[in-house]
Amino acid sequence: MVALPMLSSLAAAVGNSAVVEVKSTWTEPFVIWTATIAESGSNKSSSLNAGTSFVGEQHDLSIKQNADALHMFEEELAEWERQCSGKRQKPPKPNRPVPRRFQVGDVTTEALIDILTGNPRGVLAKYDELAGLFKSFNQYKGRGGSDVANWLGMFRAEPLTVDRKVNGTVRYIPRAAVSISGTIQPSVLKSCFEGENTENGLASRFLLCRPPESAKCWTDDVVDPRIESDVRNIFQGLYSLPCGERPAPIHFDRDALALFREFVNEHGRETAAVDGHLNQDQYDAGVERAAARRQDAEKEEYENSPAGIMAKEMEEFGERLRESTQTAEEKFADQMAKIGQAFHAGSITADTAKRALEAAQQDLDADRKRIEDEQKRKEKEIRDAQIESINKVADRKRKLAGGVTGDAREKAEDEALRSQYESLNATGNKSEAFDVLSEYVSRLSGRAESLSEDMKENSGERILTSSAREAMMGLGTSGTVDQEILKKSEDNNRELVKMNETMTQLYRELTE
């Protein structure tokens, strides 16, 4: 719910300073329209504000600067009028400053066009209720208005020319770029995105997202100030990009172009297969195709990962070992046959045959030892590579956990340890898995003690069980345990019991 509006915010920050040049005859502007679908009371407005907050900071700063510039202009204008009093030859009249804008809200198309005239980079249009935007189309023009056509042009950052009938002026904007982000309720979505707004392509230009619904609950988590600072620096860097008459072209690298080409072809095939609007069957088929593509991508990612590459190497090495073993056995059998033939033919004595057989057996034993050593070396190499890969993944998760605070950080660190243990155990690295599991259990034990102390301070008693929780339900306010702490303690203790049992079983396997 925050990431989606931030996409529109980032696009607006780039604006007309750059374009993506797919090829010499195909460019795409940095304009993104997003809509978050959620019920009333789901914090969608707060999420929209968070996702657009860095544009809002630039907007608030510009409002203050605009006010200062207007105040200075008014003083200069008053001084100019004083100087011009009674004079025929007047000095140049000071120019009214053009207000800088980064964000607009509930604004008419006419007002938006005026704003874009003085802001060539473009702006972000933020709508707490997107339905208001759709209802505003042509509301002052009656039938045959051009609001929708103008908005479709702004999605492409196309030139926009508006003739004013009232005063005869003409507004021309070479590149009218407006990104949109807003929220909408599911029940309102259909009425806005059907009929004419589907036929004219307006609806298809929005990136829609409906996050899964979940119960509201209190959290002490906050955004790490370091992350907030890093994101703010990104926005400031994008806004500092020069915005001239011609946007700077940005090109795909080879890998990105290959991915985009694949997307274009796949999307073209899907579009060609649709007759009219999508029905439920076509939608379900599209979901299945997307799932299949995701599985293929995950498979390709695994095959190209260190673990996947090592697994392939192990398979190839196993085949070579089988061939080497077979060759050694065949060599020994061939030597045995030749010795037997020579002995029966009388060309060698029994002692010579015996020594030859012993030498052949020694050669076979040496080949078997060499193959066994090579197998052990390769298995250790693969095992070390697996452990290194698993530990690197766990380290990355711990670093990501460092970017959040409170319960979220605690859960992320727990998950890093738990998944590290599971991966090590699944790959047969049981000793290393036991060490990680021991660290995880120690972490859970320490937390259990801490939570117990928290509850003791809160209620004057040490309460750790659900039966004790039931007993406490009848107590007054002074004796009521903080339910959030209690639930956290119960969850932690259940996990601790489970992990202790797992560690005991793993220890048995290691000592058998």
Labels describing this entry:
single chain, 512 residues, alpha/beta, 5-stranded parallel sheet, 17 helices
Give an account of the 3D structure:
The structure is a single chain. The chain has 512 residues and is of the alpha/beta class. The chain has 17 helices and ten strands. It has helices at residues 3-14, 44-51, 53-84, 109-117, 130-136, 147-155, 186-192, 196-199, 225-239, 254-272, 280-304, 306-345, 350-401, 406-426, 430-459, 466-472, 483-511; strands at 18-23, 26-29, 33-37, 103-104, 123-127, 160-163, 170-173, 178-184, 206-209, 248-251. The strands form three sheets. A five-stranded parallel beta sheet has the order 4-5-8-3-9, with helices on both faces. The model is unreliable at 460-481 (pLDDT under 50).
Could you outline the blueprint of secondary structure elements for this entry?
Layout: H1 3-14, E1 18-23, E2 26-29, E3 33-37, H2 44-51, H3 53-84, E4 103-104, H4 109-117, E5 123-127, H5 130-136, H6 147-155, E6 160-163, E7 170-173, E8 178-184, H7 186-192, H8 196-199, E9 206-209, H9 225-239, E10 248-251, H10 254-272, H11 280-304, H12 306-345, H13 350-401, H14 406-426, H15 430-459, H16 466-472, H17 483-511
Parallel strand pairs: 1-10, 3-8, 3-9, 4-5, 5-8
Antiparallel strand pairs: 1-2, 6-7
